[in-house]
Design brief:
The complex is a heterodimer of chains A (291) and B (647). Chain A has 291 residues and is an all-alpha fold. Helices cover 71% and strands 1% of the residues of chain A. Chain A is globular, with a radius of gyration of 19 Å. Chain B has 647 residues and is mainly α. Chain B has a two-stranded antiparallel ribbon. In chain B, strands 4-5 form a two-stranded antiparallel ribbon. In chain B, a hairpin with a 6-residue loop joins strand 1 and strand 2. The radius of gyration of chain B is 26 Å and the shape is globular. Chain B starts with a helix and ends with a helix. The chains are: A mainly alpha (291), B mainly alpha (647). Strand 1 of chain A pairs parallel with strand 3 of chain B.
Chain lengths: 291, 647
């Protein structure tokens, strides 16, 4: 329960730490780490401009997306049952469905472009995540997120390899689903280069605040999964790990550029390769470990 | 049981009434008596399903056919359920849908009155000859139903394609049943236990697979469904192709433990059908063709689940078998509901804009809000997203595969993992397909006058059946535990040990869905409250300062799917007819793109061309000359007399 409340409060701090890291590496002082909170409250106080082309979908979709991401957080923290990682992936897909149709609702080519790119580039994340998590579950014998917490207790030398690969895969998923460099540059203002940003061009005011929050919460969820692999039982360890992840994301954003659009698919394929390696490791483990 | 017979007779009566009564009265008779027939038919069905009973009655025919057992066991009952429910809702819908065509509807309702009872009889009878007779009646009546708009050449060609393909399938079924009869000497299904060899099973798999729409036998489906009137498409896609699955399941009841190769074959067929089905669906412009390919994908999903269940039987993993069969029956029921919903909404759009090309539409959500919301509900359901019912069957399939990882078998483990990955990819493709189609048809600005001129939604008698189906889809997703008996009782026919009901998982999903709905409503209310005193005004969509915005600027169907399909190119072929502009100044040019179904282009077409080449040598036989035909008759008689005399 405490973990769930923390997850609800921390997303903007996560973004703040990333931005502060980027600023410090660029040699600037940067905004305070609480700046995203101030931005959010500023956005809530504003009104909205709604396009005439849109329908009720444009106005309700950010809220539906937020509800879906919060339900995904509930799933990680509170509910645990067999097959819950499947429900996790599908509830996030429901949020994605509505954000894509809300983008197409505006009838603008920018949003359409963003929606189509977002739909195609994130399509390969689900297969990889299913294979990774079910391989880990096959070793841990529990088909839910709880087996992630058990990786450190795996015997043989398998747990080192699996935890390193799983953390790498989850980290890549943060970059892909959270629309960070090298998949998508969140600071660009050239529409032709945008993926996620282009989808939300017409959103303003509270909708924009909600979208920023749900995006950050999604990244925080995957960071929370990484934390549950490394420090499954301590809350302080989770918080420290989450902010370490934020600093690393800030570092990667500062030193890398966004990939060419045709190369983003190749980047997503790395996830599938990692998934297949973890599957092979899990298969070997069924037959008595690596040594 | 008498209720079912009465129900069948009432349906046939509605068909025959077309020949007797006149005018408006006919449609009322059809609706009224179909309603009574449906209610009567549902009574024994619910008893069979909820109490896991088998109702039998025997009709004696002459010496040739023998005694025909008409058996309503739980396996048949679930199919009877979807036939009656979808059939009745389609009939209510057809009343106002067929009215604008200004044609005589008697023929259509006659064949509709024969089609539904023939499907009922197919799943009920247990005698070879009666089964084949009812199968043929089903194929023939659906052929005539397809020919509603027979003044169009495309309709006639696709219908004849369907007819020939169905006869090929029936031929294979005949062969399979003849082999079974030779082995056992009986016409009754009950005598076939343990007699099904691998050859016979393959014959039935291909024969029933042609009806079900397995890839590569699916080429008739994307041709037949777009040209049919929408309620017929809903019936065919939601119900008729499931009779193919029923056939395979019935043959499986004759087998004690399936062989490993059979199970892997079925799994492979399922994976290929699911993958190629949704791949072609993503690329379509014709929204009904997209829905037809999506049906192929869902049949693939049902087959994957069946393959998982059969593997569970082979490896004696009872949890895997349980979830596998639960997935099969849950998806049969769920797909019938949301696919019929989608086809009926597609018909509703078609009846207003008179085009099947989604690139000519747009912005219909403002003029047809109910249809748009129902199509949205259908799309969310078919992408297997919570809180609708599609997710329930999908999670059964995944759980079946997950529990199969336990089997300690080094071949099964990577196969199940890879299939799980492919299933997730298929789900992602379904998401792309349906967001694409929904956005192109309903959202944005109208692209042509056809879409702009729509000013009202479909009439209530068309909206109510769709609303009922959407409500079922939502309720089944939120409260799946109430419907567990519906899925459980057919499974009991295949499992030796009683099924461990996954109640805990279903209750968790129920609570999850309820919290989701509550959270969404709360957040929406909070948003409205927060916006109360703020300035909200309407303006044009932001266009980056561009002055001359028109409707061509928005993303189209082709552009949305292009990045995704770009990296899957070898699997389907896009024929481009593009005159590139090579000079410096603007020039007139054109661009045409066409998707070719590789199975049709590389497998079916060469076979048909070869057949035409061989048969063209014999065209001289059919000269059209009556004298020559009389000569053929005379020669045949002479040969027969000579043979009889010699013997």
């Amino acid at each position: 329960m405490i973990k769930f409340l923390l997850l609800l409060v921390l997303p903007f701090l996560f973004i703040g730490v990333i931005n502060k890291t980027k600023a410090v590496i660029s040699g600037r002082k940067g905004a305070s780490i609480f700046q995203p909170y101030f931005d959010f409250f500023k956005l809530i106080k504003k009104g909205l401009v709604i396009s005439e082309t849109t329908s009720f979908i444009f106005q309700t979709a950010p809220t539906i997306n937020l509800a879906c991401v919060i339900m995904a957080a509930i799933l990680i923290c509170i509910f645990h049952f067999q097959g819950d990682f499947i429900l996790f992936a599908y509830i996030l897909a429901l949020g994605k469905f509505f954000s894509i149709i809300a983008a197409m609702d505006t009838g603008s080519s920018f949003e359409g472009m963003g929606a189509s790119r977002e739909a195609s580039y994130t399509s390969l994340v689900e297969p990889a995540s299913f294979i990774i998590i079910s391989s880990i579950c096959a070793i841990g014998k529990v088909y839910s997120f709880e087996s992630l917490a058990k990786i450190l207790s795996f015997n043989n030398k398998v747990w080192v390899l699996i935890s390193v690969l799983a953390i790498f895969a989850l980290f890549s998923m943060i970059l892909i689903e959270g629309s960070r460099t090298p998949v998508d540059d969140p600071t660009t203002h050239l529409e032709l280069t945008m993926i996620h940003e282009a989808m939300i061009l017409d959103n303003a005011g509270i909708d924009l605040g909600i979208i920023l929050y749900s995006n950050a919460l999604k990244m925080l969820l995957f960071a929370g999964l990484i934390a549950s692999i490394l420090t499954p039982h301590s809350i302080l360890g989770t918080i420290i790990l989450i902010f370490t992840v934020a600093v690393i994301i800030g570092f990667i954003e500062s030193v890398s550029a966004r990939l060419r659009l045709t190369h983003i698919i190749e980047y997503t394929f790395i996830l599938i390769t990692v998934a297949l390696i973890i599957m092979a490791l899990s298969l070997l483990n069924l037959y008595g470990g690596l040594i | 049981m008498i209720f079912l017979f009465t129900s069948i007779i009432l349906f046939v009566f509605t068909g025959l009434a077309q020949l007797v009564f006149k005018g408006n009265f006919k449609a009322r008779i059809v609706t009224f008596f179909s309603g009574i027939a449906t209610t009567l038919g549902l009574i024994p069905t619910t008893i069979a399903l909820f109490k896991i009973q088998t109702l039998t009655s025997t009709i004696g025919f002459n010496k040739l056919i023998g005694n025909v057992n008409v058996v309503l066991d739980p396996l048949s009952a679930i199919f009877v359920l979807i036939i009656l429910v979808v059939g009745f809702l389609a009939i209510i819908y057809s009343y106002k849908y067929l009215e604008p065509y200004k044609k005589d509807l008697s023929t259509h309702y006659f064949f509709l009155g024969i089609f539904i009872p023939s499907m009922l009889l197919v799943v009920l009878v247990q005698n070879i000859l009666m089964f084949l007779i009812c199968w043929e009646i089903m194929s023939l009546s659906s052929f005539f139903l397809l020919l509603f708009e027979n003044e169009k050449k495309e309709v006639r060609q696709s219908a004849i394609n369907y007819f020939i393909t169905m006869q090929i399938g029936a031929l294979l079924l005949f062969c399979g049943f003849i082999l079974l009869n030779l082995k056992t000497g009986s016409l009754n299904f009950t005598d076939f236990h343990g007699q099904v060899s691998n050859t016979i099973f393959i014959l039935f798999l291909i024969g029933f697979g042609i009806k079900a729409g397995f890839v590569p036998l699916h080429t008739w489906l994307p041709k037949a469904h777009p040209i049919a009137p929408s309620h017929v498409s809903a019936l065919m896609s939601g119900v008729m192709i499931k009779t193919g699955i029923y056939g395979i399941l019935r043959i499986l009841t004759f087998i004690e433990i399936p062989s490993l190769s059979t199970s892997y074959t079925i799994l492979l067929i399922g994976v290929i059908s699911a993958f190629f089905g949704i791949l072609y669906a993503t690329a379509q412009r014709n929204y009904k063709k997209m829905l037809a390919y999506s049906s192929i994908e869902n049949i693939g999903l049902i087959t994957i689940s069946l393959g998982v269940a059969m593997l569970g039987l082979c490896y004696k993993n009872s949890i895997m078998t349980g979830f596998g069969f639960l997935g099969v029956f849950a998806h049969i029921l769920n797909h019938a509901i949301f696919k019929s919903l989608l086809f009926l909404t597609a018909g509703s759009i078609d009846s207003k804009v008179h085009t099947k090309d989604c690139e000519k539409l747009g912005g219909l959500i403002k003029s047809m809000p109910y249809t748009a919301n129902l199509f949205l509900a259908g799309s969310v359901a078919i992408c297997a997203l919570p809180p609708f019912n599609g997710f329930i069957s999908e999670i059964f399939i995944y759980l079946g595969m997950l529990n199969g990882l336990d089997s300690r078998n080094h071949f099964l483990f990577p196969i199940l993992m890879l299939i799980m990955g492919i299933l997730a990819f298929v789900g992602a493709m379904a998401l792309i397909t349906f967001t694409n189609m929904f956005s192109t048809i309903f959202l944005g600005n109208p692209r042509t006058e056809k879409a702009q001129e729509v000013n009202e939604d479909s009439p209530k008698s068309m909206l109510i059946p769709m609303g009922i189906l959407a409500t079922f889809a939502l309720l089944m997703g939120i409260f799946p535990s109430f419907l567990m008996p519906l899925f459980l009782s057919p499974c009991s026919m295949f499992l030796k040990t009683p099924l461990i009901v996954p109640n805990q998982i279903l209750t968790n999903i129920s609570i999850f869905n309820l919290i989701l709905l509550a959270l969404t409503s709360t957040l929406l209310i909070i948003r409205v409250l927060l916006l109360k005193n703020k300035v909200v005004f309407k303006h044009k969509t932001w266009g980056c300062g561009y002055q001359n915005m028109n409707t061509k600027i928005q993303y189209s169907n082709y552009s949305f799917s292009r990045p995704f399909l770009g990296f899957l190119t070898p699997l389907f072929i896009r024929q481009l007819d593009f005159k590139q502009v090579k000079e410096l100044f603007p020039q007139k040019t054109h661009f045409k793109s066409k998707i070719i179904d590789i199975f049709e282009f590389y497998i079916v077409k060469p076979i048909v061309e070869f057949d035409k080449l061989v048969i063209s040598k014999f065209y001289w036989i059919q000269s059209g000359n009556i004298q020559k035909y009389l000569l053929y008759g005379l020669i045949f008689l002479l040969i027969t007399i000579v043979m009889v005399v010699k013997l």
